[in-house]
Amino acid sequence: MKFADKIIACTQSPGSPLGFGLFRVVVGLMVIRHFFRFIRSELERGYFGDAFYLPYFEWLQAPPWQVYVAVIALALFSASALVAGLWVRPMALLCFSSTTYHFLLNEIWYRHNRYFLVISLFFICLAPTRAAFARNLRSSQNRPANSKWVEFLLKAQMTLIYWASAWSKALDPAWSQGEVLARRKLGEHAASVVPDFIADTVQFAFSDHFVVSTGAIAIELALGVLLWVPATRRLAIWIGVLFHGFIEVSASVATFSYLTMATYFVFADLKPMQKMWVVPTGNGQSKVVAWLLAALDWLMQVQVVSAEVPAPRFFDGRGRSYTGAAARIMLFSNLPLLFPLFYPASLFVLARRRFGRDSLRETKPVASPAISWIWPFVVVHGLIAYLFFINFPGPARVTFEDSRFLEMPWYVAILSLVALVFRRQTLRARAVE
Amino acid sequence: MTQIRALMIVVGCFLYLSIQIFFIVRAHFVDSKHFAFWMFPESTSFYANLSRETYDGREISTKQGTWVVEDGDHFATYRWADLVNDYNLNVLDRRVRSRGSWADSERYFQEALNFFARRIPEDKQTRRLVLRISVKKAGEKKRLVTLRSEVRDTETREP
């Protein structure tokens, strides 16, 4: 195929509407969070236009406060519509315009995370996010849309961010030798919000700032590469989630961590129910497996079916079948929590080509368990674990500066709700098919 | 039609990425790191004190940027933090970490000084405002930076 043909094919290839749909939900939530901080701050200090500010352009002065309030109201309204999946395209444009206008009003408000929020909204405008996970599209979450190129552009953007960050740190001797992190006192900061026994570990981990700095630079450089290689993409996503999660807990970067992790929904190439775990018909364990998968397979990539097979099998997204230990390894490596444990073994299975090309004559889906209680169970236990984490062993140590720790449980609850809707839509789509 | 659309997409992607790369590379040659994704560009702390340079040549230090002037039959109180309240520019007389790069903070301080000097109409004694800042950048020694506001309109001068 000629190079030009390849490019034309790329612009016509369907991307990941579902991934963009999930990305859109998180971006909407982050816009709301972003503006709530401004509202809180301005209720405290008064309208920003009455104090010192510095517009990016001379002609872009602070508007009358009534206009300013209207802009924020529009941004909040459109962001809520993005979360709910209502009138997605016009709301994305409205949200992007109002947030960009607000961003440009004052240079002193510049933060990388706020700039990245604007960029994310730009991508929401570009991508066919209305084709997925929207309130008015009941069973079309996998509707093809030519968005592969948007996915490519977003991935290139993320690579540039990782490399720019790593490059700047590597060139700065104060950063690469650990002095910058040492002065940030990350360990002490973390110690103020976690129990002592964890704080000791965290402070120990931060004690060698040279190692921490070098590690951060290496991770950023690696992420920029690993996200592009199909075989290492899930590994990159796992490292990225840990990396950004750790940064958010140890040194809050406002919306940046959440937005970055949300881009992984797009890169993960989500295709719900395309992989199969096949259990022999009449196997008594099939319902237990279905229950376990409902709890562990958060993005619903694997469906459980029964068929006339002698032993359980796993079918990957490309139709390759695995049996025996290889089947279990491949199944577990597809579950987010177990992935790090089974990823090396799954590479071994693929390298040794321990798979076949079977096809099943007749399969019957094993009914998924009722989900109404699973997600509340997960949410409540997540919240208890979290509250235990920040409060134990003494009274709550959360201070105003650490307000993000008060907000996190809400994100857990909201994203669990999103997961519930995602699951219902996926099951409904499967029933329609 | 398909080819034209593909061409437009390719050109659009190329332009977008070129702009992003331009901002990243530009950051190596300018002080401001805006739009360049230089996370933690540096770790700098500063200690700033605001003082007033009067028309008779004295320099009077303020406490946390606050001072009171008598104007006829009433007193006017000026507080730096009332009008300058972001980017840690509001924190005076206490060592604090600079947000972003120090070059940006220094520029903002200068603009804020000029802004504030234009908003103290009842102060007939102050010729201009002076910020003396002790800056400690990671990997460097402490240094002293002095910023002065524009000289205030002489019509405001006390007779």
Short description:
Chain A is mainly alpha-helical and 433 residues long. Chain A is 63% helix and 5% strand. In chain A, helix 3 packs antiparallel against helix 4.
Helix- and strand-based class of chain A? mainly alpha
Biggest beta sheet summary of chain B: 5 strands, antiparallel
State the separation between the terminal residues of chain A, measured CA to CA.
Answer: 34 Å
H/E element string of chain B?
HEEEEHEHEE
Low-confidence stretches of chain B: none
How many β-strand runs of chain A? 5
Helix content of chain B: 25-40%
Enumerate how many helices of chain B there are, as a single number. 3
Q: Helix/strand-derived class of chain B?
A: alpha+beta
Helicity range of chain A: 55-70%
Fraction in beta strands of chain B = 25-35%
What would the average pLDDT of chain B be, to the nearest integer? 89
Instruction: Please give the most extensive interface between any two protein chains, plus how many residues each contributes.
Output: A-B, 41 and 44 residues
Assembly status:
heterodimer
**Uncertain stretches of chain A:** 136-142, 391-396
Our Rg estimate of chain B from Cα atoms comes to: 22 Å
Would you tell me the overall average pLDDT of chain A? 81
Notes on the structure:
The complex is a heterodimer of chains A (about 425) and B (about 160). Chain A has about 425 residues and is mainly alpha-helical. Helices cover about 65% and strands about 5% of the residues of chain A. Chain A has a five-stranded mixed β-sheet with strand order 4-3-1-2-5, covered by helices on one side. In chain A, helix 4 (about 90-105) runs antiparallel to helix 5 (about 110-125) and helix 15 packs across helix 16. In chain B, strands 1, 2, 5, 6 and 7 form a five-stranded antiparallel β-sheet that branches. In chain B, strands 3-4 form a two-stranded antiparallel ribbon. Chain B starts with a helix and ends in an 11-residue tail after the last strand. The interface between A and B is large, with 41 and 44 residues.
